[in-house]
Write the structure tokens for this entry.
Amino acid sequence: MALVRTDEWMINNRPIQLCERLTFYFKNATARDIYLHLIHHGMYSSPNDIAKIADEMKRKQIWEHAEAIYQKLRKRWNGPDVPVFIFPADVYNRKLARDFNSKGGIAYSDKLFLFLLPHHQLKEIEAVLTHEYNHVCRLAKQRKEEYTLLDAVILEGLAEHAVGQYVGKAYQAKWTTYYSDDELRKFWKRYLVRYQSIQPTHSLHDRLLYGHGLYPSMLGYAIGYGIVHRALQEGHGLPQIMEMSSERIVQLSRFDE
């Protein structure tokens, strides 16, 4: 399936109408459901200036560059062939700007989305696509009926280590540097241990994963990165750890000690 030429969809820049095209890929979801879900992860919500932004993205051949990167990643990880959708990111999203330089994405076992802007350089596009496609590969390897907060935490840690290893540490997300190893261990014991088995529908899941409210910013992401970092130091490579369960990775990291 590979990359979908969503640039050809941008003639109609109203996001809910664009999401009508996506209902085929989401079981039992309306265009509005999909729209609300995607803007939560960084897709643009206002049609203002989007035609201009999309034209600039086309001029910079963002779709062509992403296609080449995607094919390289598939070959490297022998990963599944999934549709890749690119839409402009939300230029008004301050958190997206602060933590991710206004780029975002969301991945599933059978598809992934990227939210980009014209100013993103080739290496930045490679970084976010590497992160999201690593999710796809991990989800394909670790198929479960129910995913937990711990699964989400480890998923993010693995993906950002993939960015560091294959794209370069300079292109890793800012949240990888927010806290020291000692702080992450304290946060793990204080905030996450007791809730590691909660599911995405639990009211605390996203608050802990993203560090909303009074929780430290990007809490779950940062802890996941710290856990995977420690596990890698035990002598296993990233491809090996990708095959392990979330619980085994925590055990290997000795974060509980």
Notes: The two ends are 45 Å apart (CA to CA). The first strand starts at residue 84 and ends at 88. The chain has a mean pLDDT of 93.
